[in-house]
Structures are given as C-alpha cells and as structure tokens.
C-alpha cells in the first residue's frame, strides 16, 4: 500500500499563536460504540433531521423578499449585526442562523450571480450542524459550502474547506472568493509548492481552501513543533507567558472542516497513512536492489514462486528459497544476503516489483522519478511512495536514481486526523452506502439531500466484450456514431495506459480527440472546458470522475447532452457513478453506458470462475452477477482493510497514551 510521504524541510519560528483547538479523544467509550452500532438509532433519526433541515431551509427562503430589498451596505450591516449572536452560540438561537444564511444567499446572487436553491440551503444547514451531506453529482456542492463557511467564520472559527487536490482547492476558492469578500472575510488557498510562511498566511485567513494531504501534513508539522510541550494546558500556559513566540505553528487549530468528496477522503484514501519523514542516505542500497532484481529475474513461476494477484502478494516456494540461496552464494553476495529472512524479503519485493507493478498503471516514470498514480483519482501523487523498500526496488527496475529510504518522524491516517476536528462535516455525491462507516469512524450522521431538478440521464446499460482489442473497437464504433450526430463524448479509463490505447484506436479511425490523463495535468482545465462542446471527444482517466464540471452548450443539450462511456468497472461502484455523474448535471439531459471486457482485471482478480462461465455463457444474469460479485468482493476486501487500519490506529492511540504522542 502506498504511503504519502512529506518532508519536514522547514521550521523557523513565527509570531503568535492562539490556543490550538482540537479534540483529544473524540470517540465515545466502548459501550457507546457498541450501542450505536447495534441500535442504529442515529440512522433512525436521519429522516427527522432531514425534515428539520427542510423546515429551516424554508425559513431561509421566506426571508428572500426582506433581504432583496436591502442595499449592499445594509445587507453587509445586517450580517455583521448578527455576529455577537453567532459568537454566543446559543443553541436555541435558530433565528440568527436563518437570517445569516438568508444574507449569504442574497449576497451570492449579487456577486456570483447564483442564488442558493432550497436544497443547497438544506445542505449548507447540514454542514453547519456537522453532518455528512449527500448531494448528487453536479448539484453544486461548491456553492453549498459557502453559507456554512461564512457563518462559522463570522462566529470566529477558523474554517477549512477541504478538497481532494490543489487544483480543486484553487478553483473553488477563486469561484467563491467574491462572496466571502462581500462580508469582509478573507480566503486563503494552500498550494503544495508554498513555503511555510505562505502557508501560515493562508491559514491565518478566515476561510482556507486546502487539499486533504496538505492539511494533514501541515498538522503533522505542527505536532512536531508542539512535541516538546505536551498537553493542552502546558501549551496554553506557554502561549500566554511567552506571547506564543515559541514554536512556529501552521494552523490555528482544528475547529471546523467542510470536506468535499468526503467518501474519497474518509474511505478510499483512509487506508493510506501519511508519513512525515526525512531521507536517510544509503549509498549501498542501489546495488542491493540491482542484485535482488537480477536474482528475481532468474526465478521461474510456478516452480520458484507463486503470485496471488487478488491479495497482491508473492510467495516463494521451498524450491525457490533453495535456488535463491544457491544463486546468492554463486554470485558471492554477502551482507544482508547472508541472512535468510532478509534475503527472502528482498527476493519477494523484487518479484513484486517485476510482476505486480506496471509502468503506466500503478505508476509513471516522469522527470527521472517513479511517481505513483492514484487508483481512485488517476492523478499522479508526487509525494507518495511505497513503503519498505518497494519504491526503491521499482526505481532500480526502471533504472532511475534510487532515492534514499525514508525515516519516519510522524504518521497519521486521515481517519485519525479528521476525528480531531471540533466540528467535522462532509459532502459527497455517493455516500449513503457508507453511512454506517461514517457514523462508526467519525460520529457523522449522513443526510441525503433531494435533487434540485429531476435527473434526466438515460442509462444505456453495459456491453461485455471478450477482450481488450474488441473493447476499444466497440468503443470507437460508438464514438464514431455519436460524433457523427454532433454529441460530445467522454470516455473514462482506469489507467493511463488504457487511455493511451483508446486514443490510438480513435486516432486510427481519424476521430479527433483530447486525452486527459495524469501525465499532463497542466492543460486539464482547458481540456475539460472544451469537453462539453459539440462533437468533442475526450478520453480521461479517473481524473474526470471527481469535481470536474463539464458544461454542455445549449446546442449540445438539444442533441441529447454529453454521453459518457465507462470502459472498465472500478473496484467500487461508487467511483463508476462519479464518472457517470459528469453528465446530466443540474437536471440537464445526457446519457451513460459501459463497454467492458471480460479480460478486465476486476474480473480476473476477483471472480475468475464466474468470468470463465461468462466467456462460455454470456447471458444477462451471468454478466450481471459477474459485475456485482466482483465489485462486492473488492469492496468487502477494502472495507476489511479499513477496519483493520482503524483497529490498529486505536491500538496505537492507546499505546501512545502511555508513551506520549508520536505525531
Ligand atoms: N444555485 C445555483 N445557481 C446557478 N448555478 C448553479 C447553482 N449551484 C450550482 N450551480 C452550477 O452548477 C454546476 C455544478 O456545480 P459543482 O461543480 O459545484 O457541482 P458538484 O455538486 O460539486 O459536482 P461534483 O459532485 O461532480 O463535484 C456549476 O457550473 C455551478 O456553477
């Protein structure tokens, strides 16, 4: 499993820090947990919650004429006048909240030209209460976050709006900045390339847009800075006595977070530990990996080793172990090679690097570096590396410079990090099936918000073909027909390699297209902006599955809107729906279909026998079962890993209660 690596490259002192709000142990005790899980009473409450949100949203909508009549200055003054009431945070003061929301709604219409729909007001109220809000793709989550952010900021809380990457953080911040500015609130944006001073400035703003990775690393840096002063009380005392001039801190505490694409952050990426590290030099490492690869290449499957693709593991057989020992001896390898366990581990890793990881799929080689491609977003993660020497092994295989091994300074998972917020909220397009997990892990109740306009997408179902060449031919034929009719088509692929293959087939047919994959994210915005034009053909990796807003032109809508083709099912059906969600946004027409091959990895890895059956008897029920079963098994496996990770995290937390925090 890849880890996200960050380097602690800085740490100069800065000026004052306010007391750093965060939760020390947000979890209830074991009995509470047990009860919550068994009784599901929070779920039972969700309909009530929805009704309450609806009632309040109605109150906000009813204030429209009153606020419409105000001048800009009067509107601003009305919001400022509510500040003391919001600051007092009296539980029953719903009126102040409703009026503040109505003010934001009015201001939004004036400065952004968009007035929040009732469902968006409902969503925003949910966020402000600290809920997980499920809104369908394309319903306008960016705008939904704004009233909650404004009101929390007016009440003095540092607000973090969390997105999955820098590009979305910058885009969403720019889109909404004028609205915050109207109320005199400042907006900061964090970019991965920023230095500590710039980061601190951005966090000092009332509202900060930041990616989950950047936010978590900055928090880890703060924890290291705070390490010497354990415990809140001492920290506060120090901050008071020294005017806070001790250590440089990035954040102003964890008060309120609005996490966009929360299913991705809380679930898909939850398994990835974030590790802050320094690099340790090891001049002999490169030779070690080269030797391991040479030895591994001399072993044969299945006599010497077996590959378990489902669990991504390589096992050496007894014969393989013997051969390894002989070959290491024959090559006169010494040092680690003389130790049996080390020798076998090196061989296993080299075999994994050779047989389980492929360039263009799990990683790309760019600028002389091995860079991991995120399976869920299709984006390159430059900060990420595989652990335990695997990364170095792949570097050696690709003949690029072997980087030093990392030494861990602090680590945390997203799960543990986000649980520390005083108030946490999330938005997701596809979250209801994860409601129990959100509740268990984050104490978050999920509430589904209805659509603003009914969905008009036509779902054309799935076509299964035998193998990959047949798939790309089938895709090309569909595209040619749609292109001829002037409709734009978006083709989603699971890997960079697949996007290139698809592009080659389109090229051969003379179909003009754009490729949007992890290897050229700079032109992304322009390509996406064009993707809704008449006759446009866009091939994209998962990148297009999250947050990208493709706006079809009026002429295109008349023709039936954007058509989305999925070319490989993802391990999670949620991600499939994210891709399909690129069309039919805001109640627009559109259509979706899947064209997949029985040779796709999902089937060979999770349901090999059903796949064989499907090859012989390709009838509907078998094909349906194939997909459902493969995705079901994949999801179950991931859920298990997450549960184990959570258990491990809790154990770590308990163990650290005795020895002091490591992060
Ligand atoms: N109240 C509104 N009035 C007018 N346009 C709106 C309104 N709300 C949202 N939009 C528009 O709807 C489109 C979709 O918004 P946005 O990209 O925020 O959706 P989303 O829910 O975040 O989608 P995804 O789940 O795919 O990320 C945008 O073009 C946005 O400007």
UniProtKB/TrEMBL annotation:
A molecular-function term among this protein's GO annotations: ATP binding
SMART domains noted in UniProt: SecA_DEAD, SecA_PP_bind
InterPro entries: Helicase_ATP-bd, Helicase_C-like, P-loop_NTPase, SecA, SecA_DEAD, SecA_motor_DEAD, SecA_preprotein_X-link_dom, SecA_SF2_C
Pfam families on file: P-loop_SecA (PF21090), SecA_DEAD (PF07517), SecA_PP_bind (PF01043)
Location within or outside the cell: Cell membrane; Cytoplasm
Highest rank taxon of the organism: Bacteria
Gene Ontology CC annotations of this record: cell envelope Sec protein transport complex; cytosol; plasma membrane
Enzyme class (EC, first level): translocase
UniProt-listed GO biological process terms: intracellular protein transmembrane transport; protein import; protein targeting; protein transport by the Sec complex
Membrane topology: Peripheral membrane protein
Coiled coil: none
Entry EC number(s): 7.4.2.8
Domain SecA family profile: 35-627
Biological role: Part of the Sec protein translocase complex. Interacts with the SecYEG preprotein conducting channel. Has a central role in coupling the hydrolysis of ATP to the transfer of proteins into and across the cell membrane, serving both as a receptor for the preprotein-SecB complex and as an ATP-driven molecular motor driving the stepwise translocation of polypeptide chains across the membrane.
Protein name: Protein translocase subunit SecA
């Amino acid at each position: 499993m890849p880890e996200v690596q960050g380097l602690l490259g800085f740490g100069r002192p800065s000026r004052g820090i306010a007391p750093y709000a965060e939760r020390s142990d947000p979890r209830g005790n074991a009995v509470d947990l047990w009860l919550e899980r068994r009784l599901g009473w929070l779920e039972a409450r969700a309909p009530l919650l929805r009704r309450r949100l609806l009632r309040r949203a109605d109150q906000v909508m009813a204030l429209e004429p009153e606020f419409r009549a105000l001048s800009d200055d009067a509107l601003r003054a009305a919001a400022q006048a509510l500040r003391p009431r919001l600051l007092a945070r009296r539980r029953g003061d719903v009126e102040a909240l409703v009026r503040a929301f109505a003010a934001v709604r009015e201001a939004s219409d004036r400065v952004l030209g968009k007035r929040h729909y009732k469902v968006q007001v409902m969503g925003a109220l949910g966020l402000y209460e600290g809920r997980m809000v499920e809104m369908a793709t394309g319903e306008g989550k960016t705008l939904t976050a704004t009233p909650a952010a404004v009101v929390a900021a007016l009440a003095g809380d540092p607000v973090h709006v969390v997105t999955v990457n820098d590009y979305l953080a910058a885009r969403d911040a720019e889109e909404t900045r004028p609205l915050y500015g109207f109320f005199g609130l400042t907006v900061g944006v964090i970019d991965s390339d920023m230095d500590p001073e710039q980061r601190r400035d951005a966090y000092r703003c009332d509202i900060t847009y930041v990616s989950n990775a950047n936010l978590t690393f900055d928090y880890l840096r703060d924890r290291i800075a705070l390490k010497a002063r354990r415990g809140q009380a001492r920290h506060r005392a120090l901050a008071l006595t020294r005017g806070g001039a001790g250590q440089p801190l990035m954040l102003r505490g964890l008060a309120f977070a609005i996490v966009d694409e929360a299913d991705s952050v809380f679930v898909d990426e939850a398994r990835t530990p974030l590790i802050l590290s320094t690099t340790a030099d090891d001049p002999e490492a490169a030779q070690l990996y080269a030797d391991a690869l040479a030895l591994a290449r001399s072993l044969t499957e299945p006599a010497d080793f077996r590959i378990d693709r489902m669990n991504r593991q390589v096992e050496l057989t007894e014969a393989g172990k013997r051969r390894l020992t002989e070959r290491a001896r024959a090559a006169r390898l010494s040092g680690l090679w003389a130790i049996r366990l080390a020798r076998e581990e090196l061989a296993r890793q080299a075999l994994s690097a050779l047989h389980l990881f492929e360039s263009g799929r799990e990683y790309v080689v760019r600028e002389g570096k091995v860079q991991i491609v995120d399976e869920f977003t299709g984006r390159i993660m430059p900060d990420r590396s595989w652990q335990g020497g695997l990364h170095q092994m792949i570097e050696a295989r690709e003949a690029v410079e072997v980087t030093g091994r990392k030494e861990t300074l602090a680590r945390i998972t997203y799960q543990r990090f986000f649980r520390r917020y005083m108030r946490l909220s999330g938005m997701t397009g596809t979250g209801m099936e994860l409601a129990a997990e959100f509740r268990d892990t984050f104490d978050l109740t999920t509430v589904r918000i209805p659509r603003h306009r009914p969905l008009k997408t036509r779902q054309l179902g799935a076509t299964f073909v035998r193998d990959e060449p047949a798939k790309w031919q089938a895709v090309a034929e569909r595209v040619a027909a749609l292109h001829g009719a002037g409709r734009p088509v978006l083709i989603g692929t699971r890997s960079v390699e697949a996007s290139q293959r698809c592009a080659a087939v389109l090229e051969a047919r003379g179909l003009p297209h754009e490729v949007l994959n992890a290897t050229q994210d700079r032109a992304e915005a322009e390509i996406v902006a064009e993707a809704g034009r008449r006759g446009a053909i866009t091939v994209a990796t998962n990148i297009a599955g999250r947050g990208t807003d493709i706006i079809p032109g009026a002429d295109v809508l008349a023709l039936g809107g954007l058509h989305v083709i999925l070319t490989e099912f993802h391990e999670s059906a949620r991600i499939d729906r994210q891709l399909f969600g690129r069309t039919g946004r805001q109640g627009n027409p559109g259509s979706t279909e899947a064209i997949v091959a029985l040779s796709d990895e999902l089937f060979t890895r999770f349901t090999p026998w059903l796949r064989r059956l499907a090859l012989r008897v390709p009838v509907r029920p078998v094909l349906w079962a194939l997909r459902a079963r493969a995705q079901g098994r994949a999801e179950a496996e991931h859920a298990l890993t997450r549960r184990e990770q959570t258990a491990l995290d809790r154990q770590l937390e308990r163990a650290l209660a005795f020895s002091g925090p490591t992060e």
